[in-house]
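Ticket reopened. Same input as before:
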Amino acid sequence: MTKQLYEAIFDENNIKWRSLIYEMVRSGKIDPWDIDLTHFTKEYMNMIHKLKELNFRVSGKVVLAAAILLKLKTNGLRLNEFLSMTEEEPDYAIDVEEDEEQFMDEDEQKLVKLAKHIEHNKKKEYKLEPNIYGERTRKVTVFELVGALKKALEVDERRKTREIEQVEAPKLMQYKVKMVDIVEKMIEVFERLSNHLLKHRRNRVHFSKIVPSEEKKDRIWTFVPLLHLANDGKVFLHQDKPFGDLFVEVKT
Amino acid sequence: MRELKSKLEAILFCSPQGVELAKLAKLCGIGAKGHVKAVLNSIKEDLEKREAGIKLIRNENVWRFRVRDEHVGLVTESAKPEIDKAILQTLAFIAHKGSARQSDVVKLRSNKAYDHIKQLVDLGFVEAKKKGTTKLIAPTKKFYKYFNLNENEVLEVEGA
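Engineering reply: fixed in the latest deploy. New output:
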């Protein structure tokens, strides 16, 4: 079973691996405490050595899988009872940013609280025992069901607003773009080029000679049509080295 | 019988998720499942007779202790709800719609809804019927009974 779990985690294309972990634990096919995380890490290292190129997707999956397994392991401890010891104690120095804490789920907040407690009471001896009683569950009330519906509808409302914003966003970003007819520009540059070559009775000319002015705009609107003309096979462009002189030749 | 009763109570006390009849029989070393079932029914009756704070319930073949409905309010802090928050939201949305296409549920509740629906079907709170390329998800009788709602009553949020 553990092998099947490893295969699902290390397989880049397996997207159901997370459900598989929960399903296997829920159905009792695996006990999280039977999974050796050290062995799991070694398996991962072996796989990394075999990889020929970096694949962050796999490493991200493995870190998340290890965290999930560790969390499932902690569920098997009497964490809630253990935490009750910390209830009446002063708030210890905060190691975790407050902003960070609001993004934690309930279990993570419990673990941070516990870590602070242990950090503050280093000399105290702790005895962790497996939770043989399991976690007590109770019936869900209809009020909780209505509360859950309220929450689900709020999420739906937020999603709809987000979708509307996404549709409207491009409108807000619209601005006028000056349209340029590239064919017209190509004819203009080709005529300028032909006239220059005829005048000087040459077949080849330096790019700078056919640019109307030194302005950046003029250089761009000479160069871009030339690229199109070269693409159409009307002219040849020669440049011996990168950023070197550019020569234009009319194809005869 | 008294010894078997005591053993069954101990096992069920330590297994909040419940234990199957066959497993209970095996753990107690009893071959006849019918005898174990009779003792379980006797425990159930005892608890009902003396109006105990807990009751023994059976869901298909799984037996477990549960806090009496009228005391649930007392244990909201000490006991976890038996349906996970995210799954409960998915269930609430289905109940609000009366019946909903799986694709609509997924659109609202993300891809995780596939797993939620599977668990809700396993728990018997919803049923999934094939409809074209998707499934039609609807609450079951068990759902209405569990939440003490009238059958086919549509769940609403006050003021919404």
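Chain B has two domains: 2-75, 85-146. Residues 33-49 of chain B form the longest helix (17 residues). Please confirm and we'll close it.
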